[in-house]
Specification:
With 650 residues, the protein is an alpha/beta fold. Helices cover 27% and strands 23% of the residues. Bound molecules: FE2/S2 (inorganic) cluster (FES).
Length: 650
């Protein structure tokens, strides 16, 4: 007798003879129901729940009573409350079967940040358990041929290409596993791993290689769970603080590129070791890796000469995504592990920007998004599902605290938030590593060491709002003398902290003006190319982008005028993009397609860049009145054309 089975959420349905297992019914209907063990009751990935629909209420006896396979089941993935193993439960009545997300091969892992797309999980690496017929004198086929035959018959995996190391351990592994093995197959094509018996552990690592820091995320490829996250300094700093000084090092030293490659690969391998230790797993469990980085980091990790990136026309060795054996990059993971590096967009817009695009998805929506990854070289992407444009802008290291008199990296002791009283000009500030503000009890002035990028931005923006820094960026003494604004040579400085002495000097303001004007000009240039005067949304990516208060970024004119509600931090978007590419073949295809159609705008050869740059030197901007920002804060009156400005000697 046949019974009706409906699977949700797919809605697929069919009639099956009584006694058919749920897994077999799902397979027959093409329902996305996971299995690593091939229905042997070992992996626990096929868990289902009895559901309901009008006329078919949820009743346990619509499926067979749990037998020993389920009652004795002790797999790594515990059987949830009310869950049944799809490979063991048999259909005895008409039934609705709910497939929970965890039991789907292609699932979405919802990220915690609000308003962000879910993370698709459909890894390119899959594990398959298979039982192989023992050799037989009567039919003398090789062990490999019998393994491939079993994989084709049971999993539909035909035409597999076998990595030579697998062949070398094949016979011993088959015998050790009692003719049952688990294999790892990449993209349904390459058989690159084999283990005796059943195995349910496939891990991956996503690397985000920045010029200052490197971040790594260890993920479970089968569930999308992040098992460990860690970071390290990029040891290349010893060869030059910023990217261009590292390229110079390569140009001036014959073995420069190989030394930089060696140290960064060493750091990645060390980080990999830390991640697996933290998660109490083995390096050999890491079967797949992914990589993002700016073009120079990308080239150096992959062992590509970055010299062409130092001068126009900034030619990349390749813009394509690459798949490289991990062992070739000095990474000690599983012997068959490979590293997927995301595509680069252009000479100064790298795989990190591609990662950020994949994560933020401007191309998926209709709203016009400006995605800004702020670093020593800002990478900018503007667009929506119609069109995407990208550029980079030479902001220099001021936003990272370099070129600032008391500047430092964002580290404990750095002033990161600043407020200036509009009438007394007294400051209050907060410092990384201290919970209280400088005007609160318990604040330790002795622990203040300098000011970081977000601190200097807030300081200058607040000083502008307080009337101390004018539209041209000149520090001017107030009419009522203030101990806070002090003369220094022919200019003035603002004393933010007297002990230790931390000042905002005229040169500091200039350095930040140059950096912010470059960033703003890059954004305006993209807007010109797109033909718009305003964007719908601005996302500030990168570690620094996450620290900037959008209000102050706008007061300073780092970014174009925009509804402040629509300006937000994107967190480590490039790293999230690397994770997406690690966990999803679909995500890889998506970013490869998108990277191909992004239009590159080269700021260095665009005459309008210089025009925009000059206008953007003013705070917030020489010609743009920032109407949306003006609704929120009272911007100081702008000098009218011809108005004589009050000078120090006035
Ligand atoms: S398919 Fe592995 S336990 Fe059911």
């Amino acid at each position: 007798m046949t019974r009706q089975v409906v699977f949700s959420p797919s809605g697929r349905r069919g009639a099956f003879p009584e006694g058919t297992t749920v897994l077999d019914a799902a397979r027959a209907l093409g329902v996305d129901l996971d299995s690593v063990c091939g229905g042997r009751g070992i992996c626990g990935r096929c868990q289902v729940v009895i559901g309901s629909r009008p006329g078919v209420e949820a009743r346990a006896d619509r499926l067979s009573e749990p037998g020993p396979t389920e009652t004795d089941y002790q797999g790594r993935r515990p059987l949830g409350q009310g869950h049944r193993l799809g490979c063991a439960a048999r259909i005895v009545e008409d039934v609705v079967i709910d497939v929970p997300p965890d039991s789907q091969v292609h699932r979405q892992v919802v990220r915690k940040r609000a308003g962000v797309a879910a993370l698709p999980v459909d890894p390119v690496v899959r594990l398959h358990y298979v039982e192989v017929p023992e050799p037989d004198l009567a039919s003398p086929t090789g062990d490999l041929e019998r393994l491939l035959g079993a994989l084709e018959q049971e999993w539909g995996l035909g035409g597999l290409v076998v990595d030579p190391p697998v062949l070398r351990i094949l016979q011993a592994t088959l015998r050790q596993g009692g003719w049952a093995v688990t294999v790892a197959v990449r993209q349904g094509r390459d058989l690159f791993g084999i283990w005796p018996g059943f195995r349910d552990l496939a891990l991956g690592v996503a690397f985000d290689v920045g010029s200052t820091t490197i971040a790594g995320h260890l993920c479970d490829l089968l569930t999308g769970a992040v098992l460990a996250t860690n970071g390290a300094m990029n040891p290349q700093i010893g060869f030059g603080e910023d990217l261009m000084s590292r390229v110079s090092y390569v140009m001036m030293n014959q073995d420069g590129a190989s030394r930089l490659t060696e140290v960064v690969r060493g750091a990645l391998d060390e980080l990999l070791g830390e991640l697996v230790t933290e998660a109490a797993v083995d390096r050999g469990d890491v079967l797949e890796l992914s990589l993002v980085g700016n073009p120079i980091m990308h080239h150096l990790v992959l062992g590509l000469d970055p010299r062409e990136l130092g001068t126009a026309p900034f030619a990349l060795a390749t813009t394509s995504a690459l798949d490289t054996p991990a062992s070739e990059l000095g990474l000690h993971a599983h012997g068959g592990a490979r590293v997927y590096s995301l595509p680069c967009v252009a000479g100064h817009v790298g795989a990190d920007a591609a990662g950020a695009v994949l994560s933020e998805g401007p191309h998926r929506g209709v709203r016009l998004q400006l995605l800004v990854d702020v670093g020593t070289n800002a990478e900018l992407v503007l667009g929506n599902h119609d069109r995407l444009l990208a550029a980079s802008s030479p902001t220099g290291p001021a936003f990272e605290g370099a070129q600032i008199s008391s500047g430092q990296r964002a580290a404990p002791g750095a002033i990161e938030r600043v407020r200036v009283d509009r009438s007394t000009l007294h400051p209050r500030f907060s410092v990384i590593g201290q919970d209280v503000w400088s005007d609160e009890a318990g604040f330790d002035f002795g622990a203040v060491t300098g000011i970081c990028g977000s601190g200097i931005i807030e300081a200058i923006a607040e000083l502008h709002l307080a009337g101390v820094v004018d539209t041209d960026g000149v520090i001017r003494p107030p009419i009522e003398p203030s101990s806070r604004v002090v003369a220094s040579d022919r200019t003035y400085s603002y004393v933010l902290c007297s002990e230790p002495l931390i000042e905002v000097t005229q040169n500091d303001v200039r350095a930040v003006q140059l950096a912010k004007a470059a960033l703003h000009a890059g954004a305006r240039l993209l807007m010109d190319h797109y033909g718009v005067e305003q964007v719908d949304e601005i996302r500030l990516a990168g570690a620094f982008g996450s620290h900037i208060d959008p209000l102050y970024a706008m007061v300073l004119g780092m970014i174009p005028d925009c509804d402040l509600e629509q300006v937000s931090a994107a967190g480590n978007a490039a790293g999230v993009g690397a994770m997406m590419a690690l966990l999803s073949g679909v995500a890889r295809t998506e970013i490869e397609e998108v990277a191909r159609v992004i239009e590159k705008v080269e700021t260095a050869v665009e005459p309008r860049f210089q025009e925009h740059f000059v206008a953007a030197l003013a705070i917030p901007h020489k010609t743009d009145p920032y109407p949306l920002l003006s609704e929120l804060v009272e911007l100081p009156p702008r000098p009218q054309p011809g108005e004589r400005r009050r000078r120090r000697s006035d």
